[in-house]
Write a structure and sequence with these properties.
This protein has two domains: about 40 residues; about 100 residues, GMP Synthetase, Chain A, domain 3 (2-Layer Sandwich), CATH 3.30.300. It has three helices and six strands, in the order E-E-E-H-E-E-H-H-E.
Length: about 140
């Protein structure tokens, strides 16, 4: 299956790109590199894409497992190399699941399935660096 993407330069260090959905995303560089910091940098979008990909998997899987959760937040911390190309050398994902009666085993299983089977972004990134994960369950007080 072939997919296509198109990105065009707009001005200075700003670009607009779209994938096969046709929805545009803006990108910009840091001011120290001639950008205006009006949009995310490309490498930032990679981490946001990772969170979105695995997050969608986990939400879908928890729903199928009948886990009554009320929130999911993914926090990512990544290490970058000091030299160019400044690639990620390690990525750590923390899944924060909120709800009153949450089965931790089901949360863990949903994350494992996402990471090991479904999330294509994670699978791509794991070829370049370790992608580690942890999870926390937050039970709101009454």
């Amino acid at each position: 299956m072939k997919v296509r993407s198109r990105t065009r330069w707009t001005k200075d260090m700003q670009f607009e790109g779209s994938g096969w959905s046709g929805i545009e995303v803006r990108m910009d560089a840091a001011s120290e590199f001639g950008g205006h910091e009006t949009a995310p940098r490309p490498l930032e979008l990679l981490l946001v894409g990772l969170a979105g990909c695995t997050g969608m998997d986990v939400v879908s899987l928890l729903g199928k497992m009948r886990v009554d959760f009320t929130g999911l937040v993914l926090e990512i911390e990544a290490e970058k190399s000091a030299e160019h190309p400044r690639v990620f050398t390690e990525i750590n994902l923390d899944y924060i699941v909120t709800g009153r009666r949450i089965d931790g085993d089901k949360v863990k299983r949903a994350i494992e399935l996402s990471q090991d089977k479904y999330c294509s972004v994670s699978a791509m990134l794991r070829k370049a660096c370790p992608v580690n994960w942890s999870y926390r369950i937050v039970r709101p007080s009454i």
